[in-house]
Each structure stands twice: as C-alpha cells, then as structure tokens.
Amino acid sequence: MAQITANDPEANTARYGLPLLYPGQAHKEVHHNEALAQLDLLVNMVVEGIAETPDGLTPEPGQCWLISGTASGIWEEWRGSIAGFIAGEWVYLAPQDGQIVQVRATAARMVFRSGFWRMTPTMAEPSGGEVIDQEARSAILALRNALEQFGLMV
Q1: Containing H/E element for 110?
Q2: Are 69 and 111 in a shared domain?
Q3: Spatial distance between the Cα atoms of 92 and 115, rounded to a whole number of angstroms
Q4: So which domain of life are we looking at (predicted)?
C-alpha cells in the first residue's frame, strides 16, 4: 500500500470517503473513530425511512434516513444520499451503485442503481389457475423463500 501524507488527495478511501491515517498524524484516534462511526452506519444498512427534511425527526445516534429526491432546505443538496445521525449531528453518505438498504418503516429493501433508489422486486405466492399443482406451488414457494432469505427479493 502506498504511503498517505497529510496533503494527499487520497487521504480518504475511494468508495465511501472514509478518513485514512497517515504517518506522523496528530490525534489519529479522531480520524479512526470517525471512520468507525461511518462504517457503523454503512454495514448492513438499515434506514428508518425516506425523508425530505430533518425537520420533525427525532433521531437517535446511529439512525439513518434516505434523503428524498424532492428534499428541501438543508437536505436539498444531498438528494438521494443517506443521512446518518452521529454524535449529535448529521453525516451524509453518498450511495454506491448496487448498495442495498432495508427500510424499517415499510420492511422493504431498496437498491441504488444508475443514480436512483429503487424498490427490490417482490414475488407473490402462487395462486389461481384451473388446475392446482401442489408440487409446483411448493417448489415456487421454496424458491421465493430462498430468494428472500438471501436478500435478493422482499
């Protein structure tokens, strides 16, 4: 790994911009703790819901919201991003293509693709038809359950 210096533009990680430590850095624990706090928000991400503004929210440390594409006020410039609440203030995280979040308010999953958050597909239980084939229905249900278990469908 190349050495990082204080004036290096690569003093943050490439994907999420987490602060990196560099030789001779004072107060390394501040940067290290900041990176850990951001990782705490990112790993197995759960957002409380989708919001247009932080007004009216009563966040607890570690809670996150997806910022709506129609956000206003102080969140307007962060549309489509993730707002996490750490140490009494908002931290903004830019989503990465393919990132998946669980939305606590709706129990849905969303994926970030091509600049937009999209709901992951859902699959209804098999029903209808004139002839009911229990074996086929059982196989379809097993497939659906496996896809849900692995987080590919809701």
Answers
A1: strand 108-113
A2: yes
A3: 16
A4: Bacteria
Are residue 100 and residue 114 in the same domain, yes or no? yes
Q: Are 50 and 112 members of one domain?
A: yes
Separation between Cα atoms, residue 150 and residue 147, nearest integer Å? 5
Whole-model pTM: value is: 0.66
38 Cβ contact partners less than 8 Å away, ≥ 6 residues apart = 16, 18, 84, 86, 91, 93
Same domain, 50 and 82: yes
Beta bridge partners of 77: none
Q: What is the pLDDT of residues 20-73, one digit of tens each?
A: 777 877 888 777 777 777 777 777 788 999 999 999 999 998 899 999 999 999
Q: The tokens of 151 are what?
A: 């987080």
How many structural domains compose the chain? 3
Report the alpha-carbon distance of residue 78 to residue 18 in Å, rounded.
18
Tens of pLDDT, residue by residue over 90-105, are 988 888 888 889 999 9
**Same-domain status, 34 and 53:** no
Residue located via tokens 């990196």: 20
Q: Which residue has the tokens 């489509």?
A: 80
Number of helices (H), then strands (E), belonging to the chain: the values are: 2, 8
